[in-house]
Design goal:
The structure holds 2 protein chains of 2 kinds. The model of chain A has no long low-confidence stretch (mean pLDDT 94). By secondary structure, chain A is an alpha/beta fold. In chain A, helix 4 packs across helix 6. In chain A, the strands form 3 sheets. Chain A has a 9-stranded mixed sheet with strand order 7-1-2-8-9-10-11-12-13. Chain A starts with a strand and ends with a strand. In chain A, strand 9, helix 7 and strand 10 form a beta-alpha-beta unit. Chain A is built from 12 helices and 13 strands. Chain A is globular, with a radius of gyration of 20 Å. By secondary structure, chain B is of the alpha/beta class. Chain B has 34 helices and 19 strands. In chain B, the strands form 7 sheets. Chain B has a 5-stranded mixed sheet. In chain B, a hairpin with a 3-residue loop joins strand 11 and strand 12. Chain B is globular. The chains are: A alpha/beta, B alpha/beta.
């Protein structure tokens, strides 16, 4: 079967052990305010306009069959809703400078497997493998399970990075073919969780408990978003859940705003545009807290 | 995070010299101007005026010995190891006995060779200081970046005048320009940038002496043995009588060397006598005692072994105008002395190596502007660690660790460190090597020993035990057999990018209008490809034959005698290297640069003009000749065609086909020692000047941009599938077919962070070498930091980065080369 991915990264070394291939799935089940990969949220293909590459030759304007792009005050403006539904996308074909591109690629599981398995010797020598990330891999559950199965049948170590918000059934189906879950815990307070991610937290926690009970191999990942996820209460709540589930390891992912440009390029709005990256001393203090709690903890 | 950390990721490993003494030496080096020292050449010239009529080997030995014995022994403040090539901290000997014309042209304000204007030199750091000091009077600037006193300058002018008609280059020119039928092609090739500039100003090198014998026997014993041969010699065949000449020359040169080292013993003794500081006095007394002992007698301990090695290395270095004269497998050489010395420890050995590496970096060379630019001031002294011994057992030992630590501490540009990779090497050693890479200096480079062994077995047919033990790297990335191989002396590089220009323009160079080849009007992909091959064949063959002529003159003017004494089996055979005395003479290579651009261009031609029929050949060629202006859409389509380095058969197969053609064609010509030329490809700085003289290419490259570097490195920006795909492409090349090769990989520091990062790096190397690859080296730096270094050079005085087969001080690199490194680095993970 076929799925939609954003891109594939080789020699990835921060998402699971060893040298890995990282596959970003398109589409997400949550909608986090701080998301640094906004193009991963929507499930379909999306138009991207990279202004700094554009030489304003206006070939796209004349080529567009929907009049979705126009010149205003020396800048190109796009009606992204029209563009994302557009099938012809003549603007892309007519751009010489790669200023208009398409985000997302439709790919079959066999083609994807071919790309992943080309690096088997690197995985073998480094203890690495493949990591499915996103977006949310479980936003395409059937495709995910199929590619996981195929990788396992080739002896490839598999990891899935997930936000946890998916059906219990999907997790149960993926589990036999998943060597490692990189499982996000963001906010434990139910109201705040809904406020910042758009989804309730209880399903995430019950999925975590279910995976733990089935002896899944799990590393917790926490994005450290200043003023949102890094409060004392939230971190203590995360530690408590980890103790309850007898989890050993936690990765801290400090907030960065490097994804900000991508919002604009995809015609999206970034709600945290005033937020600055956190203080590295603060991040170290958080790490020290988890270390003191007896966990393996690293800042990424 | 402080402000700087927000802007870029710094280097993970930052270290400092082990003791205040070596810290002082490094700072002194960084603050010293570049000087020309005419002392050696003055003495050599004085002797040469008196030795007219002597047979050439005897004359060369007599002149060199005279100069050695008259050079001033200079012991600088703080030196623990005796012996310097010049009287200055950073000094160069102008070898006008090799080539006087580049200096004479400068003095007479005549035009330099065509390529000097395309080869930029760096102007920062110590070089900037040179220029400012020159302006303050008393000194003159010469060859762009060196200082010379006004008195010396006048004398040097006379010396150059003396050598004008006698030097190797002039003698060579007379020979080939008058006798070689294709001489015009070579000269036109220089004018259009098809070849690197004449190599005569610095032809020697990629040579490693037999330090094992030098230390094991001591010079006195070698002199005794050789004199015994002379005394018992009976000429039973007329042709054998030349043996006597070489042996006599050998004794003369060794005695000159003995005078050189004895002068250092006397100088150390004199300084000790006048020294008030008891600590320094003791150091100088120890130095005097050491210099009295070695290298004339075998070393008795580790320190004496280091001093004996350094003297022999230096004496070899002084004799010729070398690039790539290398120490070779120093950890293997020094291990027995370390092991048997109860006094020495790794901690005590580290400062000695730190000083040794400063001394190696202090050696400068002055040659033609083109070669100063091409070599970028780098002497390519390659020290290779690890590997296996004759039995196939791993060599890494505590000396290997001390050497790595010394360079982690010092980060000098010389020697460049390498590792012979073998799966049996210790993890601790490999992790230390990874730590060194993470300083960002770009070394050690990793080489796969078994690949080279296979190459050498095939080409030289020597026993595998011998090859294992003597395998080393001479120069940047060319393997050779240390102590038994004629150096790797070649004519320089063929610019395959220029051949693309010529294919697209029916054999005429688009810049100069010079016709190099007959006109063809290719209509099919195959016809384009064969037109290129026809040109490549002709360009390579002429280049090889021209060099054979030149090397006759080498033999008749500047045969290496001291170096021959320490290359097996010159003494046994009674022949210097120029007469074929080395055990292996198949190390003479033909070099090329830019084949990746040819393969990419052919892939684009095939895909756009024939497979997909998007445009005609004529349209594509026209778009390229316009530097793609007005053809941006076509260029986008050209860039979208698979390029080399993405593990896609379309372009990779084209490259592999060209590679095979090249290798077999090169071997079709014998070198001047009677065995086939060995194919090789590497880069040094050629991608920059070669690219500068080339128009745009069909592969999407713009006019004047650098070529792809090395052998199998992808063109910057065209490797869109990541480093593992680059490695998969690169490993399709049969590296056993060539002597040398080069793959650059670049990483952002965060990709190699911590112990896990090091382990992943080692896993990457192992994977490549199991395939099997031959060479890989790494730049580990954030391009944003390099941009900052361009803007604020004063903060980066000792920043070292990898260029090609060498590392260089950032501030001493030309802007063009800096830009190339940034460009490459921006495409890192």
């Amino acid at each position: 079967m076929r799925g939609i991915i954003i891109n594939i990264q080789h020699y990835a070394v921060h998402d699971g052990p060893g040298i890995r291939t990282l596959v970003f799935f398109k589409g997400c089940t949550m909608n986090c305010a701080w998301c640094s990969n906004p193009e991963s949220q929507s499930p379909g293909l999306q138009l991207r306009y990279i202004a700094y590459r554009c030489k304003l030759c206006l070939k796209c304007v004349s080529a567009c069959t929907n009049t979705a792009v126009s010149l205003n005050d020396g800048h190109l403006g796009h009606s992204f809703d029209l563009c994302n539904d557009c099938e012809s996308r003549t603007c892309i074909d007519n751009c010489s400078y790669d200023a208009v591109t398409l985000t997302g690629k439709d790919i079959s599981s066999d083609e994807l497997l071919g790309i992943i398995s080309a690096d088997i010797s690197f995985y073998t020598n480094s203890g690495g493998g493949v990591t499915f990330s996103g977006g949310e891999p479980f936003a395409q559950p059937e495709f995910l399970v199929e590619i996981l199965q195929k990788c396992k049948s080739h002896g490839i170590h598999t990891a899935v990075e997930t936000c946890g918000w998916a059906s219990e059934k999907a997790f149960r189906e993926a589990l036999p073919y998943t060597d490692l879950f990189l499982f996000d815990l963001k906010i434990i307070n139910p109201e705040s969780h809904i406020e910042f991610t758009g989804k309730p937290v209880d399903l995430i926690l019950s999925n975590l408990a279910m995976l733990t009970s089935l002896k899944a191999n799990i590393i917790i990942r926490v994005p450290l978003i200043p003023g949102i996820t890094d409060s004392k209460e939230n971190l203590e709540a995360i530690a408590k859940i980890m103790h309850q589930n007898q989890l050993k390891q936690i990765d801290l992912m400090p907030y960065h705003n490097l994804g900000e440009d991508k919002y604009q390029e995809h015609g999206m709005k970034y709600s945290l545009d005033q937020l600055k990256p956190g203080d590295s001393r603060q991040n170290i203090a958080v790490r020290d807290y988890f270390l003191a709690q007896g966990f393996i903890c690293e800042i990424f | 995070m402080d402000d700087q950390m927000v802007r870029f990721t710094g280097r993970e490993i930052i270290s400092a010299p082990a003791v205040p003494g070596t810290s002082f030496l490094k700072i002194r080096y960084l603050d010293s101007p570049l000087m020309v020292d005419i002392e050696y050449i003055r003495h050599l010239t004085d002797s040469h005026k008196l030795t007219d009529g002597l047979e050439v080997q005897l004359r060369r030995a007599t002149d060199h010995a005279y100069a050695l014995s008259h050079m001033t022994p200079v012991i600088h403040e703080g030196d623990q190891i005796a012996g310097n090539k010049t009287r200055f901290i950073r000094g160069a000997i102008p070898y006008v006995n090799y080539a006087a014309s580049p200096f004479l042209k400068e003095m007479r304000k005549e035009e330099q060779d065509a390529q000097s204007k395309h080869s930029d030199q760096g102007m920062g750091g110590g070089i900037a200081r040179t220029i400012s000091e020159a302006e303050q009077g008393g000194l003159r600037l010469i060859s762009g970046k060196f200082l010379i006193s006004k008195n010396d300058y006048e004398e040097f002018k006379d010396i150059c005048g003396y050598w004008e008609d006698k030097c190797f280059m002039e003698q060579g020119d007379r020979l080939w320009k008058n006798h070689f039928a294709k001489a015009d092609f070579i000269e036109n090739g220089w004018k259009i940038g098809l070849y690197t500039a004449p190599h005569e100003p610095c032809p020697e090198g990629r040579l490693i002496l037999d330090y094992e014998t030098a230390l094991g026997k001591g010079y006195n014993e070698i002199i005794r043995e050789t004199e015994a041969k002379i005394n018992s010699f009976v000429p039973e065949k007329l042709t054998a009588s030349s043996k006597l000449l070489f042996w006599k020359a050998a004794v003369i040169v060794l005695k000159g060397a003995a005078a050189f080292t004895s002068n250092y013993a006397a100088e150390a003794e004199k300084l000790a006598a006048n020294e008030n500081d008891p600590l320094r006095k003791a150091e100088l007394e120890l130095m005097a005692e050491t210099c009295l002992r070695v290298p004339l007698e075998p070393p008795r301990n580790f320190r004496e072994a280091v001093q004996a090695f350094w003297f022999t290395y230096l004496l070899g270095h002084i004799e010729g105008s070398h690039l790539g004269f290398s120490p070779g497998r120093l950890d293997m050489l020094l291990w027995p002395y370390f092991k048997n010395d109860p006094e020495i420890t790794v901690e005590k050995a580290i400062p000695l190596f730190e000083e040794l590496f400063v001394k190696m970096t202090q050696i400068e060379y002055i040659a033609s502007l083109s070669w100063q630019g091409l070599g970028h001031g780098n002497l390519y002294q390659n020290l290779i660690l690890g590997g296996v011994d004759e039995k196939g057992e791993p060599v890494n030992n505590p000396v290997s660790m001390a050497i790595l630590q010394a360079q982690i501490n010092m980060q000098m540009t010389q020697p460049t460190l390498s590792v012979w990779w073998d799966e049996k090497l210790d993890q601790e050693f490999l992790m230390k090597a990874a730590e060194c890479i993470k300083t960002g200096v770009g070394y050690p480079a990793f080489f796969n020993q078994s690949t080279y062994i296979a190459h050498e077995l095939e080409t030289s047919g020597l026993p595998v035990e011998l090859i294992r033990k003597h395998a080393a790297i001479g120069g940047c990335t060319e393997p050779t057999l240390q102590g038994m191989s004629y150096g790797i002396v070649q004519a320089g590089f063929v610019n395959h990018g220029k051949l693309i220009d010529l294919v697209l323009n029916q054999g005429i160079d688009p810049y100069t209008g010079i016709r190099m080849f007959e006109s063809r009007n290719p209509q099919t992909y195959e016809e384009v490809r064969s037109y290129y091959l026809e040109m490549m064949h002709y360009a390579v063959r002429n280049w090889q034959q021209y060099w054979n002529y030149v090397m006759i003159a080498h033999r008749n003017t500047v045969p290496l005698i001291f170096c021959s004494v320490f290359v097996r089996d010159c003494l046994g055979e009674g022949k210097c290297m120029d007469d074929g005395g080395a055990l292996s003479n198949n190390s003479i290579t033909t070099l090329s640069s830019g084949m990746v651009n040819v393969a990419n261009s052919l892939a684009v031609i095939k895909k756009l003009c024939f497979d997909d029929m998007i445009c005609s050949l004529g349209e594509l060629f026209h778009a390229v000749s316009e530097n793609w202006e007005g053809y941006e859409m076509l260029r986008k389509k050209a860039l979208a065609v698979p390029h080399w380095g993405n593990d896609q058969a379309y372009a990779d197969d084209i490259f592999l086909g060209l590679f095979d053609e090249y290798c077999s064609w090169v071997k079709g010509q014998n070198n001047y020692l009677g065995v086939p030329y060995d194919p090789s490809m590497l880069a040094i700085s050629t991608p920059v000047p070669f690219g500068k003289v080339c128009n745009a290419f069909p592969d999407g490259r713009m006019k004047g941009e650098p070529l792809a570097d090395g052998v199998t490195s992808p063109f910057p920006g065209s490797d869109v599938c990541g480093p593992t795909a680059v490695i998969r492409s690169s490993s399709k090349v049969d590296h056993r077919k060539i002597r040398g090769g080069l793959l650059n990989l670049k990483f952002h520091p965060s990709a190699l962070k911590g112990e896990t990062g090091s382990k992943n790096l080692l896993a990457l190397i192992k994977t490549y070498f199991e395939k099997p690859g031959f060479h890989v080296q790494f730049n580990v730096v954030d391009s944003r930091m390099l941009k900052d270094a361009q803007l604020n050079p004063e903060n980066y005085r000792d920043l070292v980065v990898r260029v090609a087969g060498f590392s260089a001080y950032w501030v001493e690199m030309s802007k063009a080369l800096q830009d190339q490194v940034i460009w490459r680095t921006e495409h890192s993970l």
